[in-house]
Amino acid sequence: MRLFISNSKSPALTYAKLMCGISFAFLIALEGLSAYMLKHHSVTYRRVSQQLNRAVGARPAGPGEPASVVMIGNSLFLEGVQVDRLQELTSKRLRIYPIFLEATGYYDWLYGLRRIFRLGARPQVVVVQLEANSLLWNRVRTEYSPMLFFDTPDLLHVSSDLGLGHTAESSLLLAHWSAFSSTHSIIRTQILRHTIPHFTDLFTLLIQAQRPTTLGPDTEEVAEARLKTLRDLCEAHGAKMILLAPPVPSSENAVRKLISIAQGIGVSTLVPIDPNTLSARHYEPDVLHLNSEGAALFTYAIARISDQFL
Predict the structure, then answer these.
(1) How would DSSP label each residue in 191-257?
(2) Using an 8 Å Cβ cutoff, are 139 and 113 in contact?
(3) Average pLDDT of span 44-59
(4) Cβ(245)–Cβ(259) below 8 Å
(5) Angle at 208 between CA 259 and CA 227, to 5 degrees
(6) Cα–Cα distance between 106 and 198 in angstroms, integer?
(7) 220: which of 24, 26, 264, 283 lies 20 to 30 Å off by Cα?
């Protein structure tokens, strides 16, 4: 009887081990494929990782050399600043190191700046694009940011800053170490974009529904504290911080309030172009991001006032 039970368990145990082995091999293959696709086929990953590597090399200018300027921002800068043209217009005065990643906010850039400073970046100027929405966000972008902007010890600090629970903290850790965990939501979005009619139009409506942001007394304190933290971080590494406002017509009051707060704590602020001088033909359909015509105007406006960076 005992022999019969032993024999019956043996095939089950073998089958269980086989299934575990197949599952483990599948996960390894999935992770390897995700890492390959990320590094070789993701335009965003390739662009931002290259920008980070270049920014780490930023150093103070020698006699007669152009000043080193790191520019950080989300899609408002990515779509609104024609970097090659800006560098061409300011080549005698500035050497520009852009780092632009869509859907990012305060915590992404706080830890992103800390990382490039830790790696040796020493720019003379850091130009920051954080409008009221992104400055007040209590989240990080779970795609790309954990892999590109955070070192391993940062993850615990980010989790603490955001008050994440164990599940969200585990997801952040996975997004740092695992290419599949970091990109699966991007893959899902691409699938939806190609399978659901007018998905892009729906996404545009969702963006429009999130605006405008207002700054009240409680949020003003948060905004001031966060700008001070960024200012102190830059100054601790020998860099001057400048807050540069892109033209966002739907939140003019919030922009003015944010500029007032920044100036009150000694952060230089620049408004290269008045949103009222632009019309709907200068924007994408979401009336938030500049199109090529609007970006050309904004880029030229930045170049025109670029002496104020120094």
Answers:
(1) HHHHHSTTHHHHHHHHHHHT------HHHHHHHHHHHHHHHHHHHHTT-EEEEE----GGGHHHHHH
(2) no
(3) 96
(4) yes
(5) 25
(6) 31
(7) 283
Q: Is 149 helix (H, G, I), strand (E, B) or coil?
A: coil
Distance between CA 303 and CA 81 in Å, rounded?
Answer: 10
Secondary structure (DSSP) of 69-114? EEEEESHHHHHH--HHHHHHHTTTTEEEEEEE-TT--HHHHHHHHH
Which has the minimum average pLDDT: 210-219, 227-236, 285-294? Answer: 210-219
Evaluate the omega torsion of the peptide bond into residue 66 and state whether it is cis, within 30 degrees of 0.
no
At 181, is the secondary structure helix, strand, or coil? helix
Of 16-25, 133-142, 217-226, 286-295, where does mean pLDDT reach its minimum? Answer: 16-25
Tally of CA atoms within 13 A in the half-sphere of 59 that contains its CB: 5
**Mean pLDDT on 202-229:** 71
Question: Of residues 158 and 194, which shows the higher confidence score?
Answer: 158
- Cα distances from 85 to residues 243, 270, 272, in angstroms, run 21, 19, 16
Q: How does DSSP classify residue 63?
A: T
**Structural domains in the chain?**
45-141+198-309 (3.40.50.1110)
| Cβ-count burial 245-273 (b if 16+ within 10 Å, e if not) | bbbbbebeebbebbbebbeeeebbbbbbb
72: its two tokens: 């950080």
Which amino acid is residue 192, in one-letter code? L
